[in-house]
Amino acid sequence: MDLRFRPMNSIRLVAPFFFVLCLPLLSACSKSGEILQGLGQPSSPNAPGEASFVVEVVEALQDRLVLIQNADGGWDWSSLPDELENSTQAETEHANMFGVNALGVLDAHRVTQKPAARAAVEKTVSALMAKPLSRTKRLYSSDCELLVRAGQSFQDSTVRDKGYACQVVEKEFFAAIHLLGKTSPQEKKVEELTQQQIDSVTDTQLALAARARSISMGRTANLRAFDWTSRMRVALERGDTRYHRAFAEVVAMDYHDLSVEKDWFLLGLAATISNLISLRSEAQFEAIVEEARIRLLGFQKESGLFEGVSSNGSKKHGSIQDQAFIARALIALNEKASLLKLAVALKNKMLPSGNFIESDGKETPETESELLTSLVLYLEDKN
Prior knowledge:
The protein is mainly alpha-helical. The protein is 60% helix and 1% strand. It has a two-stranded antiparallel ribbon with strand order 1-2. Helix 3 (50-67) crosses helix 4 (99-112) and helix 3 (50-67) packs antiparallel against helix 18 (365-382). The protein starts with 8 loop residues before the first helix and ends with a helix. 44% of the residues are buried.
């Protein structure tokens, strides 16, 4: 699945009541074309040893990702599932299959403490540390996030600082887009800009430049919400609250363009919640988070998975990647019953070898890594 560029309390109390009131008025509570296809508040299944089974999934999935890591520290775009015969061929490694996949292994290491997991992360970190960094030679935002968090986890300030620098040069590139008025400016012109010129661009202008570039590359609102997640997390880690807020405003701007009629709708809806939750105390963001919460819960099936289709049936939503980001949104929203039901459903979908297969018959390490992070957050939220 080619997602990246180859390249206060009072609200919570009234929310369930509001949802009940909305059921007869689906057109007012959901967006055009959406159908509330599941239960808004699923009951919690009887799941003794709940944390134990999630730990088992985390260990198996981490072992799987360590096993299929390439020698250079990256992963293939997709892998051949062990249990399936006549599968389509795996897609080979791409430059952005480093940080995004190692992040899940890093997070799972907090649970498993397995030396092989740490070694896998360090292999990826070494590969990223060897890459040059400048306005025109940038890493992916998930690479930046891995360097920041691995540096913190392993107490290596050199690694952490390169993750910070990674976002700094990214900001300088977005400044160049704004100053030059082109979403794909010539490298020479980007490098010729003075630091004074770069520093004159505001964080709001940077975020709008990033949005313009994303749109020019064909990224829908559904995918743009997903694209900003690592970038916003790194900004918070760096203490760059203005940059984080500028992207939150872009997420809010795009919210009403999220569409069930386009691919990656549930992914975008869940990412929107996660991206805005830290600013929920502000009315403009609270309104979006609450509406998005209601919309999202309407797609949970009796099975526990979140699934849906467009009005004409051409777009099917509910991939493993969708479930991974939905889980993070449910954690942020404190929707414990819905979250437990989803966790049980995901355990049931895991193959004996510890991997997951998407609807296209492929195993995608990126998705498995993202799911790993979500499951670790689930465990930590319970504690």
